[in-house]
Design goal:
By secondary structure, the chain is of the alpha+beta class. The protein is 37% helix and 21% strand.
């Protein structure tokens, strides 16, 4: 089941674009993006290059013990329909009670994304029928969302070169609180559909990004940066494999200076790799369709990961009437800051924006800058450390326990440890080589007790996870460097004495 959000927001964004020429800055950004390897040159018509326009709607599941409007527990992979309250099932007479934790998570996320926080936001009912939406409507924030007008900066490589990175910014239109729907499970063999309401009512933040991107690479980079921010804040675990971060991509193409083209929406993309592929495929599909004299339909599509293409789901030509109306059972959501907070108000019963702002942790961009400054590593290495869950902590633990300089340590971390983990599809936490063992090995190398080649042999043995220390492996394999010159001379002499014929041949030339 799709995460259903503010479809009207994107309609308005594209209608604004359709009402006049595309702004010059966005075209220039698009051309710059295309010039880095994703070029969309003139086709059969011989007209100017195509300009792709990409915007995103991201649904992030809020990290909370209970749902947005009920006390039901939130748990992934629980037994079907085991976490459903009377309100979740929409039984008559039940009323919503707003979860404070979800509000604080949305405020925290809005502040981290440079948004203006609305001190007064409203809840609305969005009506539509789905079997996994028992109430027949979703509670969302269509009119006045909790946060608006933000921005997200992200970086991406030029031509896949980590040493050449460019920073871009995408505008955040709004962040809104809303309910998730249940889940429909289709059983084709029995020709039936089962409904699991465990997810119904789980709190979501919908982050609406303006159409400021131009290719799949940019879209994936922006979502990855958002994912890191959410995980750093703790406002969402944002595990895409568990449906905690789902992306809808809105794609259109047009010639420079022309009105925006008709957009399509690719729904419910659940991996960064698939997002990049889906966007790039859809851009190319639209260009080929237009070049061949066809037209683009305003439709919803899905990405088929096995075929590597998008496929139609339903058209949007007939505008759906969601019959938005104010949610009668929820008053306006009132937030405070230090200036507006009444003196006689119980601080534990309100959400204080300034209090949350003061307690924001270092965001990924700040963490990267500190890694570069503290350890003298390259900026591109700081991106890799943060992109891999747990790798920054692993690196810092090794640095604390070894005499080797951080610049050398990072090489072993990225070239040897990370490549092995990726080769065997392991996470950093699943690594058979702990930070203590790697630091122990690097200390032997730094003290020149073993060579670099021997160190790689020892590391290969450590991967086996047999419980041996680097020192034990060095002794067992006799990999120590010999420092005594007389001992080295004796070894060399023994080799010469044992190869008399070869020595004579070498002497004779």
């Amino acid at each position: 089941a799709a995460a259903r959000g503010c479809g009207g927001v994107w309609r308005r964004a594209w209608q604004r674009g359709a009402g006049g020429p595309a702004p010059a800055p966005r075209w220039q950004r698009a051309v710059a993006c295309n010039a880095r390897g994703g070029a969309v040159p003139a086709g059969k018509s011989g007209l100017a290059p195509w300009v792709p326009v990409v915007g995103l709607e991201i649904h992030a599941q809020i990290s909370s013990n209970s749902k947005l409007f009920s006390g039901s527990q939130v748990q992934f992979a629980a037994a079907p329909n085991s976490l459903v309250s009377f309100f979740d099932a929409s039984l008559p007479g039940t009323l919503p009670v707003l979860n404070r934790r979800c509000v604080e998570a949305a405020v925290m996320t809005g502040l981290a994304l440079n948004c203006s926080i609305n001190k007064r936001s409203l809840f609305d009912r969005k009506h539509y029928f789905y079997a996994d939406l028992p109430a027949g409507y979703q509670i969302t924030q269509q009119r006045v969302p909790i946060a608006v007008n933000g921005s997200l900066s992200y970086s991406l490589c030029i031509d896949n070169k980590m040493s050449q990175m460019v920073t871009k910014t995408v505008r955040i239109k709004q962040i809104q609180l809303e309910q998730d729907s249940g889940k429909s499970l289709h059983d084709d063999t029995r020709n039936q559909t089962l409904v699991d309401l465990n997810r119904a009512g789980v709190g979501l933040m919908e982050v609406v990004m303006e159409p400021d991107m131009c290719c799949g690479e940019e879209a994936a980079a922006a979502v990855r940066e958002l994912q890191l921010i959410l995980q750093t804040l703790g406002s969402s675990q944002a595990v895409m494999a568990e449906g905690q971060l789902r992306v809808d991509a809105n794609v259109s193409v047009h010639h420079p200076g022309e009105h925006y083209g008709v957009r399509t929406e690719v729904k419910n993309i659940n991996s960064l790799r698939f997002l990049a592929k889906a966007v790039d495929y859809e851009i190319q599909r639209q260009i080929e369709e237009l070049e061949n004299g066809g037209t683009i339909l305003n439709e919803t599509r899905a990405f088929d990961s096995k075929l590597g293409c998008t496929v139609p789901m339903r058209d949007k030509e007939g505008k759906q009437d969601y019959r938005f109306m104010p949610e009668p059972n929820l008053p306006p959501l009132i937030l405070y800051d230090a200036k507006s907070l009444p003196a006689n108000m119980n601080h534990q019963q309100v959400v204080n924006i300034d209090w949350i702002h003061e307690r924001l942790p270092d965001l990924p961009s700040v963490k990267r800058a500190k890694l570069v400054e503290r350890y003298g590593i390259l900026p591109e290495h700081s991106f890799t450390l943060l992109n891999e869950d747990g790798l920054t902590e692993f690196f810092e633990n090794v640095v604390k326990q070894t005499q080797m300089k951080p610049k050398k340590v990072i090489g072993w971390i990225l070239n040897d440890l990370l490549s092995y983990l990726k080769q065997h599809s392991l996470t950093v936490k699943e690594s058979p080589v702990s930070s203590f063992l790697l630091a122990d090995l690097l200390n032997l190398l730094e003290k020149k007790e073993i060579s670099s080649t021997a160190a790689k042999q020892v590391l290969a043995e450590l991967w086996k996870g047999e419980g041996k220390t680097p020192f034990e492996i060095v002794k067992e394999k006799k990999l120590e460097l010999i420092q005594d010159q007389k001992e080295l001379e004796q070894i060399c002499q023994a080799v010469i004495d044992g190869q008399e014929n070869e020595v004579i041949m070498m002497v004779l030339g």
